[in-house]
Design brief:
Chain A: One of its GO terms (cellular component) is nucleus. The complex is a heterodimer of chains A (359) and B (357). Chain A is of the alpha/beta class and 359 residues long. Chain A contains 16 helices and seven strands. In chain A, the strands form two sheets. Chain A has a five-stranded parallel β-sheet. A two-stranded antiparallel sheet of chain A has the order 3-4. In chain A, helix 4 runs parallel beside helix 5 and helix 7 packs across helix 8. Chain B has 14 helices and seven strands. In chain B, helix 7 crosses helix 8 and helix 10 crosses helix 12. Classes of the chains: A alpha/beta (359), B alpha/beta (357). At the A-B interface, helix 9, helix 12, helix 13, helix 14 and helix 15 of A face helix 2, helix 4, helix 5, helix 6 and strand 7 of B.
């Protein structure tokens, strides 16, 4: 097995330098300035990077460290802690504090083994990745540590939800929001990877792939790699993308729509459709999400009755409560029976919406 | 390996791709995956579809016969003051763990044990990969799943994770996006028929087609269940030639659920409710989980109730299912469902009678 072949594309194409990070211009500009500043002044603040998954937070942090220290000093200067490490209050007190205390030699502007000059400012960096999972107690214990050792240590805190970080920590950091990647930025990136890896993919399929990954570049890349594995000799098509991304194929969603709203169906046939979907092993939540999407965009199509806004709105309520129930761990079959039979009821009785409220 | 005393489900479990009988497209895909580079995999699908069997076939294709030599290892993890017992099944190239067995401590299992295994390079340098199989990933806590995220990326050069879950609803999105999802659907009724006949052939049993049909029907397309039912039927008949009218055995609790549905439709009085409650309590006392009872009861009720009131029954069932999941005492919610159904049904009957007049 070849070494390169076994590598995940996400790792292979992870940006090596801050300038390579896709799309996040504001963040990139600010951080690049910090790298280029006359080194030794150490004027990088603590950073708080937040935003949805797959937008380049971890990549930016790692690339920044690489830009600052170069491969030679990277290991001694950077401590990376993520949710796979124990990060309770004890670790904050022992490991983080100890690492933060160590003073560093100021070997400014060192030449790396690759001949490039790295600023190598006189501080260390602690990256706290996936910080949403750090307990409040541990975060509280970090407060003073961040301030006291700020001469020799900078923190980069990375999280999805900034609200999970306690206020005192957030206020000690410069905050950077990472936005979901827009279609065009993703497309350029994906095209480049596809070209390098010899993936044959049409524009339309690529669009579907990007649309289904909601601005999450990692998800898009992973999906493409998985689909490519399954189907390496021909062009990628939508079915293989759906399979690789654990989506419900559009045709199944359409069939579900038809089974619940088409003329001449009975309650028994509706339930049969649900049984069929469940025994195929599709994810009910995914089905609901895609169905809701379809519901919003739908116009009159063949065999499917038209719905007015009131009907759609009340269906959204039903779907929302079922989604919540599924997340809470309710039974998939019972919840889907409810959704499916409600759809059929609403679709055929536009004036009967009030009935649904009574349980 | 001696096959004496094994259940047929285990005895006739396929261990190579060529022995798998249904889902031929999937088998072909898995085969081509195993020949080249394997990504992290996430097998998902209903119970009894053959997920573990396929995982095993992948391992077999990757490493050969060696993976059959498995041994069970009990490990004790010491984290601070806690001691956690973990049971693993391991061969030279792979290790199987079910972190959710450790309950609330599953996060520590992931952080300590799995990271440890993932980060150490495999012993045999010729095979540059080792595989960690995680069972019941959907039962793992959120924190434990979080802890897997970076581990899967960081050690992707030396280690592959194969996860098995019944439903991907409860698998975190970041984990899902790191894996190649493999959906294993339930076999169709004719697929089940083929498997049953081949097992019957190997065991030297004559199995009439009508009986195959009925087993496939009652098993709900769950292959494991179908095989167990077949074996149970064979034991209860006690001969090598099964009559086509042999009774297919269901679980006792399923008969009780059938009775309950009939009781609820027969009369709707407080008296009847007390009788129903007694049965429900009996079921719970025999450790049948509340949600399983509710689902089965709903299925039985829907089978006999009139088509018109079905949507309303589903709606009510969904509500009590939500309450049941949140609450701690299943009996209240099951009883509430029974009472609510009685009310709906009685109103429906009254309406029917009024229309007759």
């Amino acid at each position: 097995m070849k070494e390169a072949a076994a590598q995940l594309w996400v790792e292979k194409y992870r940006p090596r330098a801050v300038s390579e990070v896709a799309h996040q211009e504001e963040v990139v500009a600010t951080l690049q300035k910090a790298v280029k500043e006359p080194a030794g002044r150490g004027d990088l603040p603590h950073l708080l990077l937040y935003g949805p998954p797959g937008t380049g937070k971890t990549s930016t942090a790692l690339a920044l460290c690489r830009d600052l220290f170069g491969p030679q000093h990277y290991r001694s200067r950077v401590l990376e802690l993520n949710a796979s490490d124990e990060r309770g209050i004890k670790v904050v007190r022992d490991k983080i504090k100890v690492f933060a205390q160590i003073a560093v030699v100021s070997n400014v502007n060192t030449k790396g083994p690759d001949g490039k000059t790295y600023p190598c400012p006189p501080y260390k960096i602690i990256i706290l990745d996936e910080a949403d999972a750090i307990t409040r107690d541990a975060q509280t214990a970090l407060r003073r540590t961040m301030e006291v050792y700020s001469r020799v240590t900078r923190f980069i805190i990375i999280c999805n939800y900034v609200s999970r970080i306690i206020g005192p920590l957030a206020s000690r950091c410069a905050k950077f929001r990472f936005n979901p990647l827009p279609m065009d930025a993703m497309k350029g990136h994906m095209r480049r990877i596809a070209k390098d890896e010899g993936v044959k993919v049409s524009d339309e399929t690529l669009k579907f792939l990007i649309h289904s990954s909601d601005g999450d570049l990692r998800k898009a890349i992973n999906t493409m790699q998985s689909a490519h594995r399954m189907q390496s000799d021909t062009d990628l098509d939508m079915d293989s993308i759906s399979a690789a991304a654990c989506l419900v194929p559009p045709s199944v969603v359409a069939a579900f729509d038809k089974a619940t709203t088409a003329k001449g169906h009975t309650n028994t046939s509706v339930r049969k459709a649900v049984d069929e979907i469940l025994s195929e092993g599709y994810s009910p939540i995914q089905l609901l999400a895609q169905y809701a999407d379809r519901l919003n965009r739908r116009t009159q199509s063949e065999g499917v009755s038209k719905m007015n806004d009131m009907q759609k709105a009340s269906l959204a309520l039903v779907i929302a409560s079922a989604e919540k129930a599924l997340i809470d761990g309710c039974d998939e079959k019972i919840q889907l029976y409810d959704v499916a039979s409600s759809i059929s009821r609403i679709a055929h009785a536009p004036e009967d919406i009030q009935v649904l409220k009574v349980v | 390996m001696s096959t004496e005393g094994l259940l047929w489900v285990d005895k006739h479990r396929p261990s190579t791709f060529s022995e798998l009988s249904y889902h031929s497209v999937l088998t072909k895909n898995l085969q081509s995956l195993s020949n080249t580079e394997v990504p992290h995999l996430l097998f998902y699908g209903p119970s009894g579809a053959g997920k573990r069997t396929r995982v095993h076939c992948v391992l077999r294709a990757l490493f050969g016969q060696v993976v059959e030599k498995k041994k069970v290892v009990h490990r004790t993890l010491k984290v601070e003051t806690k001691q956690i017992e973990v049971t693993t099944v391991a061969s030279a190239h792979h290790i199987e763990v079910n972190p959710s067995e450790s309950g609330n401590n599953d996060r520590l299992v992931v952080q300590e044990l799995i990271k440890d295994m993932a980060s150490s390079a495999p012993l045999d340098m010729k095979k540059s990969l080792k595989v960690i199989v995680l069972h019941d990933v959907d039962q793992m806590s959120q924190l434990a799943q979080q802890a897997l995220r970076r581990t899967m990326e960081r050690y992707s050069k030396t280690c592959r994770v194969i996860m098995v879950a019944e439903s991907i609803t409860k698998v975190l999105e970041p984990l899902r996006s790191r894996c190649l999802g493999i959906r294993v659907a339930l076999p169709s009724k004719s697929d089940i028929g083929v498997v049953l006949q081949s097992v019957a052939h190997k065991e030297g049993i004559t199995l009439p087609d009508a009986l195959v049909q009925r087993i496939a029907e009652t098993s709900g397309r769950n292959l494991r269940r179908a095989l167990l039912q077949f074996e149970a039927t064979r034991v209860s008949v006690g001969a090598l030639e099964l009559p086509s009218d042999a009774q297919v055995m269901l679980g006792d609790w399923e008969y009780v659920c059938q009775d309950l549905a009939v009781m609820l439709t027969r009369s709707q009085t407080a008296h009847q409710l007390i009788a129903v409650r007694k049965k429900l309590q009996e079921l719970l006392a025999h450790a049948v989980p509340g949600d399983v009872i509710l689902r089965r009861l709903l299925e039985e009720i829907l089978r006999i109730a009139d088509d018109e009131i079905c949507p309303e029954i589903c709606r009510v069932a969904a509500k009590f299912d939500r309450n049941l999941t949140k609450g701690t005492k299943p009996i209240f919610h099951l009883e509430a469902f029974a009472a609510r159904f009685m009310q709906i049904y009685a109103a429906f009957l009254k309406q029917q009678a009024a229309m007759m007049d």
